Structure formats: C-alpha cells, structure tokens
Amino acid sequence: MLLSTRKTPKIRLSKLKQFLRNNLRCYSDDLNPPHVDVNFTNGRSLKISTGQYARLADGCAVATLGDTSVMVTAVSKTKPSPSNFLPLVVDYRQKSAAAGRIPTNFFRRELGPSEKEILTSRLIDRSLRPLFPERFAYETQVVCNMLAVDGVNNPDVVSINAASAALALSDIPWNGPVGAVRLGMIDNEVIINPTRKELQSSILNLVLSATRKNLVVMLEGNANNILQQDLLKAVKLGTKEVQQIVASIEKLQKSYGKTKRNIEYPLEASHEVYEALRSLSEMRVRKILTDYSLDKLGRDNALTDVRSDVTEKIKSNFSDLDMSVFSETYNKIVKQIFRDLVFEEGKRCDGRDYDQLRNIECKVNLYKPLHGSAMFQRGQTQVFCTVTLDSHDSAMKLDPMAMLISGVKEKNFFLHYEFPPFATKETGRIGPIGRREIGHGALAEKGLTPSIPDDFPFTIRLTSEVLESNGSSSMASVCGGTLALMDAGVPIVAPAAGVAIGLITRYDDEKANITDYRLLTDLLGIEDYMGDMDFKIAGTKKGITALQADIKIPGLPLKIVMESIQKATEAKQKILQIMHECIDKPRTVKKDNWPVSEKLKVEAHKRAKLVGVGGINLKKLLAETGVQVSAIDDTTFEIFAPNQSAMDEAQEYINKLLTAEKVPDLEFGGIYTATIVELRDIGVMVTLYPGMPPALLHNSQLDQRKVAHPSALDLEVGQEIQVKYFGRDPVSGLMRLSRKVLQAPPK
Question: Could you tell me the pTM of the whole model?
C-alpha cells in the first residue's frame, strides 16, 4: 500500500530504500563472517568465526573442525554477586538434531544433562576458570551449543576453543585466550586432533589446554599404559600446536573484540584492619600448622577456635567492619601463612617431607557374600570398594549421541563413585550423585579400564564409597578398585595405582612468572585448598593410564608439568609395592558365590526345543534357577549362572529338553518311507519316524515334471511315499529330502 499510493512522501521511500540496503548488507556479511583458520602440522584445520549468531550475547564464536561445528556464547552480569568465589557456570549440551538424530526417550526431546555432558562441561570449566581475574565476582555463563556433529571429530575440544574465542571477543575481563587440542599416539607418532576411528587404535587420548608462552592450563586424558617419555613428548608437541590457536584468537580479538569493561571489585579491608588481623592470628596459626601431631579434625578445630576468638576481638575494635570483608581478609592471611611455612620449614603441616607418602593400609576379602571387596586407607582417606560380576546383558548401554561420538555401544566395565557427607564429618542430603562425584568416578574408571581383559566373560560393576576423606579420594579409588578386582578373580593385565601431586608457588606479579615453587606428593585436603594445583596421575608399573590436572593459577611451565609426572611415577611405584604385599595376583581359588559362564552349541533344528514357544523354556529356567541363557548367534548360546550349583541344575534341565526323545540316526543318501501329514501350496509336510516334527518336501523335489501343487500328483494326507535323505541344511538345520531323484527321467 505504501508504494502504490501517489501521496506517499519521497522521504518515506528513501527511508525504505535505506532500510533494505542495511538489511541486505547484513545478510551479505553473514555469508562470510569474520574468521581465522588454524592449520595444524598434520594437515587438519580449525576455523573460528564470529559476528554471525547470537549478537545480543556479550561474546559469541563458532569453531569448526571437519564438519563438526559448535557455537559458544558468553554472558556476564553487570553487577557483582555477594559470593566469595568465581560464579562461573559452563553448560555443554549434546543436540541430537546436530547429528541428524531424534532423541529416543518418551518425549523425543533433550532432557537433563547426561554423564558425558557433565564431564565435558567440567573439562571446559577447568580450561577457562584459572584465567579470570582474582576476586572476579560477576555471574558468568558459558553455553556450548552444537550446530553440527559429523561423528568423526569430537566436539569437546572444539567447544574449548570456541569458548576461549567467545570470552576473548566479549567485554568480560579475562586473561586469555587459551587453545586446546586432543592428542593421540599411534605407532609412536603423536596425532593432533585424531578422529574417532584413529582414537580406537591410539594408546593415548589426552586433551591439553594452554595459553601463551607455552603455559599449560589443563590436562585430562587416559592412556593404555603409555610410557612416561611418550607422554611428555605428546605434551610438548601439543603445547606447541596450541600456540597457533592462541595467536589466531588474539588476531581475531584485535580486529573484532570488544573493549573490556571496568569491574568493581569487592571491598577490601583497610591496612589497619589487615595488620590487626595478622597480629592477632599469625603466631597462633603458625603454631597450629607446625604442630605435626594434629590430624585433619584436630587442625580444623584448632583453626576454627582461633577464627572465633579473632572474630570477637575484631568486632569489639571495628564494630562497623563488614563481616564478609573480614572473612575474606582472614582467609587470605591464613592461606599466606600456610604457603610461607611450606618454603620456610621444608616440611608440610602433617610433618611429612615433600616427597613422602602417608601411611597406607590395605585389606581384601572383607565380606563373604561379595564377589570381591577391598579397603584402601591412605592417611585419613579411606575407600571401600566392591566388585559385582554379572552377565553381558547387564552391560551399560550408552545413549545414541554418546555412541555416535565415542563409537562405543556398551561398557562391560564401569565404576560408580560415592562421596557421602559423613566422609568429611558433615551432614547433608544423600541422593542423586552430583557433578563432582561423576567426575571423580570417571577419572578412576579411566585409570582402571586398561587393566581389564577384553575377553572377560562377565560385566563388572566396581563401586567405590569414600568413608573418610582428606585428599585424593579418586586416586584412592584406583588403588582400592585394583585390590577388589584381584580379590574377585578378575585376571587384570596389571595392577594400577594413583596419586595426587600438589603445588605451592611464589609469584612475581610484575614479571608475571613463578619465582619459586614446591611440589607436594600425596596431596592433603588442606594442601589442595590452599595450593595451586591438584595433579592426579594413575597407572601401572609399566606406564600411565589416566591423568587430570586441576590448575588454579594462569598456566604452568612445561618444566613443572614434567617434574610433577616424574614425582607421581616414583610415588606410584611405592604404592604398588605396598599393594603387592596385600595381594600379589588375582585370586585363582574360586569363591563359592562367584558366577559361572559357559558357551552352549545347539544344532539349528534343536533351537526351537531349547527356546520353546515364545521363549517359555528359557523364562522358566531363569525363574527356577536364576540362570540366564542368551543367544549369541543361530547355534551358540551363552549360559550365565550365579554360582556353580545353579549351573549344574541348568545343564540338567537343558539336557532333558534337548534329549527328550530318541531320534534315530538317518544315513546320508538313505532311502526312507515318508508319511504325508499335510498338503501345502509349496509342497507336502512329511514325517520319517513317529514323533518327528514334520519336514517340508518342496514341489520342486516331488516329481521329475514341474509341479504347481501337490494335488496334481493325486497325493493325499496319510499316503506313504519313498524319499531320499540328503542331510540337513547347515544354516537352517532343516531336512533336505527328495522324491524326484528316485524316479526315472521322463521319456
């Protein structure tokens, strides 16, 4: 109507033209958004772009590797929250539509986060969190949205790079960027960002995040007993490759990034308050932290008493002091005293040297009804592990998206980790496991998986319940899990153990580097809280099976990373020796309650007798004896029994089914008299002996002439005819009979 009226002012037409030009330019720009390309040494490339989607977010970037693309947005509130920790939330969600799939649940839509999504969210979080400014208290959310998944390239590493770019391009203060690569190793050659197929033959699956100057920010992965020198080789190469990603994101940020916003930091205590707190607490805190007779509870109670006393005195002298400011300042003073003592005393708060392990105690075969059990105690960290063996039908089935990304359909070994509140003398709700428990359990499972034999006939469920916790309960789960597996008679390839390495540093803010540091073997809970790193490493005597570095400072030099791995390897050997003294090899003398598994070969024509109509025979067997029979192929069945007596009972039942009647031996090429019991369009059903299931004599084998229907030969039910026996079909098991070969050819 606007264009058709004569009275339309010219100014309106010009505005319309300008509007169309602006919008057309936007759509044209979208076709080729600002981007950078990162080319790796193995020929693969990573593309990072921005400006195309989610323009209302503080920052947005799309990263593409192969045909896998992930969009990540970053949004931060403009007002600080009252929390005294970084309120960062990372949400990584797998989208079925991105892979051309429809969710298989009842609602046919994405529901709550899966275990894989939670683990990937934690992976991204640990790559980003160390680079936020100290005392940054603005709620920040990073959302990873899969646009396309090709089933070849894993989207988790792509998400880390996209998240790094989104934060770098945003106005959110952040000391990045970081870059991330996945490292594999095939035939002693390191592979950068291996495909799903390559990972299946790789002995290493390591995700590495690093920032400029070759500083490592995050490590997490698993390996099949990789040698220490091979792991260090992969870390060096991965750190070098990451520098290209960091440089490319910095280039994109320089051209298209927003100016970082000014933030308000929480109030700090005045110099007068700081000195008052220090004078009231320093000597008492030092005395507690150098009293090596105190255990975890004694130390915590003593520090709590000092805090309560100092709080009352400060309140009387500074009545207008905000208690949140007091709490943060006091914690900062105690943390600094703790860190200084590590350098000054040459000992830790429990009296150990830097490389010394806590006292270790192991026990196995704790309760008779369990297939396998163990207790592993390291200092005041105690875990109770149990092993349950069941049939292959109890294997964990993965969801379709996890199958597409990992290439694994089911797992016949899995570990469940529990951390109840009483383990740290606390109260709390016991219910569905949280993100932390999922993460610790997955790490312990990675550490033990290479030790499980591929051809083990049972599904293994390993549980690890933390009964006491004072640091590194996930690595204690690896040790306890190994003991429980050997107690259950699982023929593991090699025992595995785990240990955590901590770090205390002195940092030069002006030069932005570490001036001095101490590595702490077998980390305590308080050393994890006050320190700068929790580096967990698990492995066998031969090599490394899993590792996870939780780094709290903006990157570690490669020198410290390599020293940490070396110290963990030395400690691991000592732990394995202690475990060897408890149980030196998998149990070979069977327990009465161990399950039994056997293979059963059944002739194809007897399959119906074994299974029964609608599987009634197998259902009855399961209900009466608890024995489960599963078909492997047409002629092979697997019998799973909870114990040997149940297996004996099941075998007796199966023998009765298969030998219920005497079947005469038929000679190949023999001529027999057959009785017709039914006429069909395709032939006649005949029996050769009483009680025999009718066999088909096909029209093509009835006569030398072509037969369309048996009635054309005047055949009737009950009539006897001569047939020749040619054995059974090797696939179907059906009898092969012929009447035609006994007739003379037509003249």
Answer: 0.84
